[in-house]
Write a structure and sequence with these properties.
Blueprint lengths: L1 H21 L34 E3 L2 E9 L11 E5 L18 E10 L8 E6 L2 E2 L1 E6 L2 E7 L5 E4 L9 E9 L26 E2 L3 E6 L3 E10 L4 E9 L6 E8 L2 E9 L4 E4 L14 E9 L2 E10 L4 E5 L5 E5 L2 E2 L2 E6 L13 H13 L4 E4 L6 H10 L2 E5 L28 H18 L5 E5 L1 E2 L7 H11 L4 E2 L2 E2 L9 E5 L9 H4 L5 E8 L1 E2 L16 E2 L3 H18 L4 E7 L23 H12 L5
Parallel strand pairs: 23-24, 23-34, 24-25, 25-26, 26-28, 27-29, 30-31, 31-34, 32-33
Antiparallel strand pairs: 1-12, 2-3, 2-4, 4-10, 5-9, 5-12, 6-11, 7-8, 7-10, 13-14, 14-17, 15-16, 15-18, 18-19, 20-21, 21-22
Helix pairs in contact: 2-3, 7-8
Length: 614
């Protein structure tokens, strides 16, 4: 046994050594401190879906083969150009490739995975956290299906495509037109400059498989109702048969506190007595166990969690609507968070890196993050839930141009403020927005949806906003942050750089919407040795040193504090970190330098929360 163990250890070490020699980070760009912890044998090994967790799974991150071909190529290449480290996008340094693809080319992936065809009626589900943008999946040379969407997770049942042996060939064809197409793509452009960044193509979140029964829990939905002291639950069951039932058990730690059993696809409520309410000060999470039964026999099981919290508007003594958490007015203040990395672009180098930004934001005294023009991996939201930080979730924009941006709240404009999108463009937006809301619904930290930013691809604003409000009435909807205003949604949100401003409370204070400053600041400070490029870095207003920056920021906090008693509900400072040539971050892009001290920021921010609102 000891000899066998020694041989196995030698094999593992040999595989790791070979993987390390086959992969090298592309030089020339800043690196975060976590690069040294990236394991090319199995990067990002953590279970990727905390809201539907299972024990029987396999992670397929690691070195795959890649090829870049003409976009017209539809057949799996017979030869490949080298190795790519999945799940880092091909343009990133961590991928080991660092090449741009573009609309005229296709990116191909290939790997062989050790996976036998399951016995009986069990099924193998191949899961992708995210692939940007159009993705065709092949198993053993046969096309399984296509997914279009750069931010939402998706899955394919590959059972019938598996061969008899223990090795299965997986291939992907990815096509991504970036800003040459009408699809949601966030801040990616083919020619990065200013606030626009490097393209991201291909796999950028974890790839994994699960072996599940033919009838299994495909997804769950849970929505807290604080006023009624209950949790509404439902489950979508794949392959459901008449008589199948789902049991939800809510637990406080390990102690069951309530349960309900319902037929597949039916909503039900679990009473949560004396609920521990979730907040940034007390981010309490309950556990949730989900069982699937047929004829009294358990056939599937998954674990999840939930929190009891309410996001709503509450009128103050002056009759102005304020944003509230758990029926109490709470001033929400946080950074604009792009979620970009100098070494991984869309993909954090490690799970610790993913957590770092959230913890650091909380340490700086912010109670909110505006997640800007990007959907993060599920683990990012799990950490927000656990650490206790509110999230405003943007829809990634796309199909920009063609409409006028009127950023002055209340001004009537005769110009085209809503873009006339094609049916194809509208379809891409609607499909992905719904998929994003579905994927992120169960995360209690998300308290507001933001369908549009400024006038970027903004279309049919009232219709989209009202659909969003109806689809998820448990959250606030900020229809167009800093965009063209149509008096719809819960929030009136202006952008004003660099100084804090707000919509006139005398005019808009009793309009029924909360008044918000969705972006301000943008104070730039390039730090030598920690910039994306050596010169021509950019900020909304640039400073020469940390002392000047802190002095200016302190002045803005004093100005912001004066607006809160007038009716301001929330504010968003640009931004958490530098991103490429944009040096507006409190942290440098490589996360190695804090431009202002955490403790000083925390003290400044606490003064905002201490303002009395009656």
């Amino acid at each position: 046994m000891r000899i066998l163990f020694s041989c196995l250890a030698v094999v593992v070490l040999s595989v790791a050594a070979n993987a390390q020699s086959a992969w090298k980070i592309v030089p020339g760009k800043p690196q975060t401190p976590w690069v040294a912890d990236v394991n090319p044998v199995k990067p990002l090994p953590e279970y990727p879906r905390p809201q539907l967790k299972r024990a029987n799974w396999q992670n397929w991150n690691g070195l795959w083969k890649y090829a870049i071909t003409a976009a017209s190529e539809q057949n799996i290449p017979t030869s490949f150009q080298g190795d790519i480290l999945v799940p880092y996008p091909v343009e990133s340094a961590l991928s080991g490739v660092g090449k741009t693809v573009g609309k005229d080319q296709a990116l191909w992936y290939s790997t062989s995975i050790a996976l036998s065809k399951p016995s009986g009626t069990n099924q193998v589900i191949l899961n992708f956290g995210a692939v940007d943008w159009q993705c065709d999946v092949f198993v053993n040379g046969k096309k399984v299906g296509r997914h279009e969407g750069g931010f939402d997770p998706f899955s394919f049942n590959i059972t019938s495509y598996l061969g008899k042996g223990k090795q299965q060939a997986i291939a992907l064809r990815v096509w991504d037109p970036t800003d040459d197409g009408p699809q949601p793509r966030g801040k990616q452009v083919k020619k990065p400059e200013g606030i626009w960044y490097t393209p991201v193509t291909g796999i950028w979140q974890t790839v994994w498989t699960e072996v599940l029964p033919a009838t299994h829990i495909a997804s769950t939905k849970h929505t807290p109702d604080v006023d009624a002291s209950q949790l509404r639950v439902s489950a979508r069951i794949e392959g459901a048969q008449a008589g199948d039932i789902v049991k939800f058990v809510a637990l406080d730690g390990t102690q069951p506190i309530g349960e309900v059993t319902v037929p597949s696809g039916v909503d039900a409520d679990i009473k949560i007595e004396n609920a521990k309410l979730w907040s940034p000060a007390s981010p309490y999470l309950y556990n949730l166990k989900v069982y699937l039964y047929r004829a009294g026999k358990q056939i599937d099981y998954a674990e999840s969690y939930f929190a009891m919290r309410k996001s709503s508007l509450v009128k103050d003594a002056a009759g102005i609507n304020r944003m509230a958490l758990n029926n109490k007015i709470m001033f929400q203040y946080g950074p604009l968070d792009q979620g970009w990395w100098p070494d991984g672009l869309f993909t954090a180098p490690t799970d610790k890196a993913l957590l770092f930004d959230i913890v650091k934001t909380k340490e700086m005294g912010f109670n909110m993050i505006r997640k800007h023009i990007k959907l993060e991996p599920a683990r990012w939201y799990y950490y927000c839930d656990s650490v206790g930080i509110l999230v405003w979730q943007d829809m990634p924009s796309g199909d920009l141009g063609g409409n006028h941006w009127d950023m002055r709240s209340g001004q009537v404009s005769g110009q085209n403020r809503d873009k006339q999108r094609s049916a194809e463009s509208e379809g891409y937006y609607r499909k992905e927005w719904k998929a994003i809301m579905d994927a992120a619904h169960n995360f209690p930290s998300i308290v507001s949806w933001v369908p549009f930013n400024e006038a970027w691809g903004q279309f049919k604003t009232k219709e989209i906003t009202e659909w969003t409000m109806k689809y998820d009435p448990s959250r606030l909807v900020n229809s167009a942050s800093g965009g063209n205003f149509f008096y719809t949604g819960h929030i009136l949100d202006i952008h004003h750089y660099p100084d804090p401003q707000m919509p006139d409370p005398e005019v808009f204070g009793k309009s029924g919407q909360a008044l918000v400053l969705g972006e301000f600041g943008g104070f730039g400070l390039p730090v030598d040795g920690h910039t994306w490029q050596d010169k021509n870095n950019w900020g909304y207003q640039s400073f020469k040193n940390k002392e000047e920056l802190l002095q200016r920021y302190t002045r803005s906090m004093n100005d912001l504090k004066k607006l809160i008693p007038l009716g301001l509900s929330a504010a968003v400072y640009t931004q958490t970190t530098d991103v490429e040539i944009e040096t507006n971050g409190i942290l440098t892009y490589d996360r190695k330098v804090m431009k202002m001290p955490e403790q000083t920021l925390k003290q400044l921010h606490q003064q905002l929360y201490d303002v009395t609102v009656k």
